[in-house]
Structure formats: C-alpha cells, structure tokens
Amino acid sequence: MINKIYNYQLIFILFIFYSCSKDYNSIGTDILKSDTFNTSVENIPVYATQKLISPFKSNGLSSYQLGQINDNIFGKFESSFVTQLRLSQYDPLFGIWDSDKEKNGDPNNIKVIQENENVTKVVLEIPFFNNTIDSDGDGVIDLYDVDSNDINSDSDGDGVSDIQERANGTNPLNPDTDGDGINDNLDTESINPDDGSTVYDIDSLIGNIDATFKIKIQELNYYLRNYDPNNNFETFQKYYSDDHFIKDFTNKILHDDFVALDTSEITIYEEDDPDTDEVDESTLVKERLSPRIIIPLDIPFFQSKIIDKEGSIDLLNQDNFNLYIKGLLLSAYDFSDDLLMILDYDNARIKITYEYDVYNDNDTTDDTSDDVIDKAEKDFEILLAGNQINLIKKGNFIQPILDNVSLGENLKTGYLKGGQGAMLELDLFTENNGVNILDEIKSKGWLINEANLTVYIDQKTIRSYGGLVEPSRLYLYDMETQTPLIDYFVDNTTGQKESDKKINHDGLIQYDSDKKGVKYKIRISEYIKNIIRNDSISNKLGLVVSSSIDNSQNLELRDNIGLNIIPITSAVNPLGTIIYGPNPDQENYDKRLRLELYYTEINNWTSS
C-alpha cells in the first residue's frame, strides 16, 4: 500500500519541487537527482489519558445483552433486558367468530357457537444471531469449510468436492451421507436424510455455551413512556443502563427455571393424518427454524390476559395494550459458568397455541342428526417491540484502571472495555511533557504517504490476571465533532463479514500463530494529511472497542462531565482488552502506543 501511494505522490512531489526551487531544470535532463528525496517512517508520540464510561442511554440500541461476563480485570458485568410487547394483530379475532356473535348466537347460522377458546401452550422464542456466510458458494459455510476460498475443497474428506456434493444432494460435512457404511464417493444410491437443512454459525454467544443457568421472565408493572414529561413531552424519554429501579416494578412471574441452549436448526414436522394410511405425514417437514431459545410461559396468564379478552378495549390498539400489559423483564442468573447472550429480539415472538370448538355439519346441511362439535387449533403471536432497555450491573475494576484515571498522566498501560467500561482519549501530536510537535512536522515539508495508529496488546498483563476475550476491532473517532475520521468515510471496502468491511481504515485485531492478539492498526492517512497540509484542527480522539464498524452513531452518557457520548458500537460490545500505553516500561518501548508516519522528505526543503 505504501508503494502504491508513493507512486501517486511522485507527480505531486515534482510539482512541489519546481514550485519551491528558483533553478528550473531543462525538460528531459536531471528532473530529480538521486538525493532529492527520501522515503522514511517516523514514530510520533501520542498523549493518552484514561476515561471511564458512565451509564449510557440504553433504549434504542442496535442489540441487547442477557447474561453475565466476568474477569479479574474489569469485574463482573450482568445484563438484563426490559421490553414492551406488541400484538401481531389488534382487536384480534380468536377462533372463527367474534365475541358478540359467540355470546348472542346467530338465528340464521347454526355454526355460530360459543367457541370456548382454551390455551394449550405458550412459548417465547428468541433467535440467536447467526450467519450462513459461504464465501466460495460451495454449499459449506465458512466456519466448517476446510478452505472457504476454494470451491473445489473437500470439507469431509470423502473424495467428493463440496460443490459436487451440493449438486448431488449429499452432505458435504458427512463422508457417508445416508449412514449405510459406504462413503459418498463410492455410494451410487445415497439419499440425504437431512436434505434441505441448514448449518448455522452462531456468533452471538460469549462464554461457555454449555453453562447451566436460569432465566426469569416477569410481567412489568412500570409504564415505559415514549416522551419525557420533564421536557413538556417534546423529546423522547431516555432510559439508562443503570435504571435498576425498573426491576422493582414487576408482577406475575411467567417463567423461572433452567434453560438449555441448542444451537442446531429446529425442525418441526407435520402431524400424521390417521385417515391417510398410505402416507405418514409425521415424516414431512412443516417448518425449519433457525437456532433459538424456546422458553415455556405461564398458560393461565395468557388465557386470562389475552384470549379471554377478545373484544376488549385493552386489545384495541397499541397505546391501550401498552397500558394494559406494560412489558416484560428478562433476567438470567445462577450460572455455572460465564455466558453472555446477544439475542435477536427483533425476530422474537410469544406464540400462544389455543384450541376452540368448531361446529361440524359433516356436509349435510339439511340433516343435523350427524352434527358434532370438533376441536380446532390456532396460534396467535405477540412480538417483543416498542421501548427496550438493557440494564447493566457493573463490577469493580482493578485498582490500576482507577489509578490511571486519578493520576491523569501519560499511560504505561491502557484499558479498553465496552459498555459501562473504559476508553482512551488521545492527543496525537503532544509529547509526554505536553509539548506540541505539529509545527515541527509541518516545517519539515514532509509528504505523508501513510499514517497509522498502532496499538499493541499487553498479553503479559492480560495473562497475569487470567485472560480476556478480546474484541476483534477497535474504533477511533473525533471527540470534538463526535464523528468518525475522514478515512472511515473514504474507505468503501465491504463484504458479508465484519472483517471484510473498511479494511483499509482497519482497526482489526492481528493474531500470532497461537491465535493470541498481537496488535491493532488503524489507518488515518487522510486525517493526518489534512492536519499537516491543510491546517485542519487536530482534535482529541477517542479510542474504544467496536462491535460493528457499520454503525457510527452515538449514545448519550448520564454523567457527561468531560465525556458526554459513547459510540453505540462500543456500548453494545461487552469485551475488553489491555494495551501498551505511549509510555511503557523500557523493555516494551517498541510496543508503545504511537502514530506511525510514512513520508517522503525532499532534501534541502524550504517552504515557498
């Protein structure tokens, strides 16, 4: 990349050289002598201060957490989730007839009867976030593909390529698809018993997915209003991650028990029809669902609160319903090991299954002697939607983090943690003694080819505390304008994976051969060029952990003394890391936090 930029800069170098020299060379002779310019790299000191992130506005987030994560550095973080509900249909009709007809009957229609709707099952389904990214299109997602860039790779080693197995209908992840003892490369009559199924990569569970834990679901008795009465209802109501008082307003417990996680696809089969002996419908797939948590809920609650309220004003519209059933509080506790779940609440649903009576005239409308009352079944859904809040109970940080904040001096070590965590404030052109070196750089006439903020991970300190799950990316933003840097906007690289997005601006973690994080690099060439060439202001920058580089929006902090916003991408990321500061011990000086400038220097430069 440096050489590419260098080639583009050559034309500009010629222009500068001629503009600043009184002696012009003849065209075609000695345009540039060998000693006219040099290309070098300079490490520029960075001044860094530690900041703690106070409780943040936690309604309207891009994702929500449930569970706990615990380490010996940032302490224990516990997340619960509050949500309003939304009926899939307002003023719903349960069964066939509305409540008035059920009550009064219809003299002209014998089929209008009391339907006696009765709830038989209620479950809450919350999908996991997942991906099915298949980079080479061979039918095997990248997680399980032996070579995700080779369409002819053979992931199960049976001698048949993944793409050929996709064409054959055999399973590219099972060398003997039908389990008859003959491998797929030799089997001429293999039938895939899992044909049509999908293998998923679940990427939203942090910790031990085999951990045992309980989930408690309670009816909320606190109305989550949309507008703030303290501002004459002219602005939206803000709820913060430490609004734990909401937990004190609960009514009925709808579930409180252990929940088992299953990250496999869920297959639902048809019910067998006893009148069709030649076909066993129970072997036919009715529906396939992505992996999800399925939690049984209290049946009497939904019988009385929903099904028995057919025709009620409480189910007439959204406002009435939110006053009637104010929402749910979801808490997870009693963990055998750490597990934090980032779940897809946008696609979650409460599914109420109920039976009801149906008048069956057996197709003999003129003869009632064979008429019977049958049972039919329907589902009704309630969605998790409206105001939603993450409530976070924060643990205690280790003392060195607090010392960093209180001392305020340039750091030996920096601590980064998402959520109610920690970040760094950076001044790129200030030395440890507070001296600004920008003027000195400008006076040299350097032509900047590339500029990188280089951040090394302090694995030694991390290991000494017992380890961390490290974030895969860091994010750098302008704290004054509260926006990303220009390099963020000019980088249009994209792809399905997070690691394919804005890869020139970067910020992605780099690993060693043992899969331990080594460093992060954030390219900010255009930002630095604007400061040095165009006298743009060098504002203080914020360095935080990141979840998705796509989201550059910010959240308001409750305690905004010195720090009033935090990027959403950091707020929703529960992970943390330790990095070398700009002033580490001498043995780690080569890993210090720094700005690396690759530049072209014109010898004997004098500004014109």
Element layout with pairings:
Layout: H1 2-20, E1 37-45, E2 47-52, E3 64-71, E4 75-87, H2 99-104, E5 118-127, E6 130-131, H3 162-168, E7 201-202, E8 205-207, E9 214-220, E10 250-258, E11 266-269, E12 285-289, E13 292-296, H4 299-305, H5 318-324, E14 328-333, E15 339-343, E16 349-360, E17 372-393, H6 399-407, E18 413-417, E19 422-427, H7 438-443, E20 447-456, H8 459-465, E21 474-478, E22 483-484, H9 486-490, E23 506-511, E24 517-523, H10 525-534, E25 541-545, E26 554-556, E27 565-567, H11 568-571, E28 576-580, E29 594-602
Antiparallel strand pairs: 1-29, 2-19, 3-4, 3-15, 4-14, 4-17, 5-13, 5-16, 6-7, 8-15, 9-10, 9-14, 11-12, 16-17, 18-28, 19-25, 20-24, 20-29, 21-22, 21-25, 23-24, 26-27
What does this structure look like?
This protein is of the alpha+beta class and 608 residues long. The chain has 11 helices and 29 strands. It has helices at residues 2-20, 99-104, 162-168, 299-305, 318-324, 399-407, 438-443, 459-465, 486-490, 525-534, 568-571, and strands spanning 37-45, 47-52, 64-71, 75-87, 118-127, 130-131, 201-202, 205-207, 214-220, 250-258, 266-269, 285-289, 292-296, 328-333, 339-343, 349-360, 372-393, 413-417, 422-427, 447-456, 474-478, 483-484, 506-511, 517-523, 541-545, 554-556, 565-567, 576-580, 594-602. Strand 3 and strand 4 (75-87) form a beta hairpin. It is globular.
Key attributes of the depicted protein:
eleven-stranded antiparallel beta sheet, 608 residues, alpha+beta, 14% helix
